[in-house]
Write a structure and sequence with these properties.
CATH class: Alpha Beta
Order of helices and strands: HHEEHEHEHEEH
Shape: globular
Structural class: alpha+beta
Distance between the termini: 25 Å
Strand content: 25-35%
Number of helices: 6
Largest sheet: 6 strands, antiparallel
CATH superfamily: GAF domain
CATH topology: Beta-Lactamase
Number of strands: 6
Oligomer: single chain
Strand order of the largest sheet: 3-2-1-6-5-4
Helix content: 25-40%
Number of domains: 1
Length: 166
């Protein structure tokens, strides 16, 4: 049964394949590239709540292994991006904090720090935007979250604008 905290409105569910099609895929990837630069991060990922409402699907990624991440899912109940989507609140973690090991194991890239913010569509949470591993080797801070929230807002506008194509 889906987590009651996650919106159950099927009209805000976006499918992974629909988000990867053009022109949404290239526009989304461009926004992710800008997110990486704005946050001085190693990579950025757009995660959307799965159609079943139990997982976060990696939909678009700007980083070393997009072909891997864009096929991965992590449980909402056992992941940072799931917690962000479930609570609707931004979050940062450091090297000692728990994270779901699935992505690190599949990509071979350790997550040393992460920042994630919720993504909204029609006023309801539909996913999360995350960045990992600041280039300076430190942690993400409030100014990174502000930039990340702005990019998440732009991504939500892009999703809403392209909804009929998805």
């Amino acid at each position: 049964m889906p987590d009651p905290e996650i919106p159950q409105n099927p009209e805000i569910r976006f499918q992974r394949q629909g988000c990867q099609r053009e022109p949404l895929g290239s526009l989304g990837r461009r926004l992710l590239a800008e997110t990486v630069e704005a946050c001085a991060a190693a990579e950025a990922t757009l995660w959307l709540i799965s159609e079943e409402g139990v997982d976060m699907d990696g939909v678009l990624n700007h980083g070393k292994t997009p072909e891997v991440i864009e096929q991965l899912s992590v449980p909402i109940a056992d992941s940072v991006v799931g917690m962000v989507a479930g609570m609707g609140q931004p979050m940062t973690i450091g090297p000692e904090d728990y994270r779901n090991p699935t992505v690190d194991e599949k990509t071979g890239t350790p997550t040393l720090a992460m920042a994630a913010v919720p993504l909204f569509a029609d006023g309801e949470i539909c996913g999360a935007l995350s960045v990992i591993n600041p280039r300076d080797g430190g942690l993400f801070h409030s100014q990174h979250l502000e930039k990340l929230q702005w990019k998440a807002y732009l991504l939500s506008l892009l999703l809403a604008d392209r909804y009929e194509e998805i």
